[in-house]
Amino acid sequence: MEITHLETIPLTHALPEGQGLGDARGFGRTRATTLVRLETDTGTVGWGEAFVPGSIARATAEELFVDDVVGMDPFDVESLAVDSYTDPYHFSESVFVQSLVSAIDVACWDIIGKTVERPVHRLLGGTERSTLRPYASTMYFTEEDRPLEEPIREAVDEGFTAAKIKIGAGLESDVERVRVAREVLGDDALLMVDMNGNYRPEQAVRSARAIAEYDINWIEEPVPPENLTGYRELKQRIDIPIAAGEAHYGRFEFKRLIDDRTVDIVQPNLARCGGLSEARTIAKLATTENVGVRPHIWNSGVGLAAAVQFAASIPDYPHTRNVPEPMLVEFDRSENPLRNEILETPLDPTGGSLDVPQAPGLGISIDEDALERYRAD
Description:
Keywords: Magnesium, Metal-binding. The chain is of the alpha/beta class. Helix content is about 35%, strand content about 20%. About 50% of the residues are buried.
């Protein structure tokens, strides 16, 4: 078997005027990503996602990947990430290169699973799970004036028993947002907060101490991702677990986070970290050092499916049945047709449980008509 065709498919969706949403750093009005479609000489098709703009993804693919990938046996998938660190030399640490590696890698695993008729999570090894616990990623900062409690109440009505909210816009705002979220969720639900790297260490410390009484499961990106000394300072000064990784990619960046005990939880994004092969390596590095692994997901339906397959395989170490800890997966609750409409059967997180697709490969089918509606080329 060999790959005969590689296609990049840019997708975009614009939110209506005045309905932008985002985090403490600012609002966004466009959701965009790039899918990669691989086809083999047997007619098997695999899908992956590169979380970068379409024009950059296409240029990177044509310049650096097409000649090597076309003609490749998809079963040689794990060589992709390894080779990317040495060829192209000096470009391997580019987020654009790693995002393309991610997409091609995931598409190869999709092909492998379809070929051997097994879901990807059964091929990755580790712990096998049939269900995951989704957490609602919600309570974004928005352009439109909405009651603060409305989005978190919607998540509760959908059956979510865990949620992550946006904070990071000042101490008073942080406390009020967390107070409202906890009040609506109730005492038994899990509550995480995301500062999106908008603070200096001292600001993050003050916020963390002020919201600690609301039983926070983790603080995500309290300082910018490149501020490793800031992360180390926070680890010494606050008791709430720290999570990061959405803006990191490749095993070497994650190894620094893990080896330095910079964070308690790493969050590889399957459309940026190097794909399923690198995510599996990252998970092994993390669990070896007893660091938690929870994938970051703010992607299309393809990236979501890849993250779900990965999450279903993450080892439980060091836990046993006597220390039950659910595997959490992020589920963005903002409007995103690139997540819902491009899949013939969208993944359903409502009711507080998410079934892991058991069909071969990623376990999804692409709605080609929807794909055409949101193509940006």
